Amino acid sequence: MHLDKTTSLLCLILFLGGHSLYPSALADTVVLKNGKKFEGIVKKETPAIVTVDIGLGTISFNRDQIAKVERSENQVIEENWQREFFSRGKFVPDGLHDFAEKFAALESSRNTAARVRGENSRIQRRRTELFNEINSIQNEISEIAAQFQSVVPEKNIQKYNSLVKHQNRLASRVVLINDKLQQDYDQSAANLEIISAYMEQLADFKNELALKKTEAKDQVQDAGSKTAGFFSSIEQRIEQYSTEFQQIEVPHQGAQDHMLVTVRVNDRIDGLFLLDTGATYVTLSSEMARNLGLGLSGKNNISVSLANGSSVSAQPVILDSMQAGDAKVHGVIAMVFPESPHDGVDGLLGMSFLREFTIQMDPVNKKLVFQKFAPN
Asked: Lower CB count within 10 Å: N or C terminus of the chain?
């Protein structure tokens, strides 16, 4: 009887008891469903077959015959090493070095985005503290102004000069705080640009990853190849990065140029707000502010320029929170205006809330899609 090469090899393996000529510590083990085990080095894996080098040659098993494939300790160590170092250029298959460099750049951008996200959280806390300090100083300046009414300079010049010096010190402090608030605002805006750029970079990389996998389809299907391991490692990282984004759908009313969103303010009252990406701050009508129990003394009012070039007196406040759907922001700076921007509207949903997110519009389903980078 004539035996072909593969049949002869299988007979020899069975004679050897399934053992290969490789030392056991270096060998992979293919366990068949009938209980037999074959040791060797797995050279190729596809959805259909597993090919094993047993030292005398190679033999292939159909997947439906295999219960499991046990990797050798050395193979596991090598795969872990590959996963750890592939993005640093120490394990990159031929022809994929430029792609690996793009992934390294993406990782760097992600780490920078995570750092500036943390920085923005600190800026937000500091902004609240500085804003509260300004309110306190403004109240103190109002009290000094009241004291001036009872002081006659000719009769009590010492008292008068003391009040003037105190008032000037407080006014200088307000200027310094406002400068710091502006610096923080500019830094926070720059940080959000960094995060937005990273989000675009991640989306572009995902598209290129799909293209590269298609180009290397044959190698990717070979589960034991370095190329398959390379792409698998990248996909695991990309999946991890994708989970760091919160995507929230928020329904809206009205047309695209007049979108109205229901927002819960300070976890207490729901209001109807007009989406306005051109407004620097959230605004509230005085009626909405009174319903929230916000003090409206008018002592700390400032002049605010409007889009039409006019100005109006408004009182700045910090809201504990604003929430549209599941999109929630704490410590939101808002301006209380005497009147509502439109009939039936409680205020403008401006950038002091919106800047925490990237926003996409879905006019067909009348939804806004808020996306926020929130790494652990």
From this structure: N
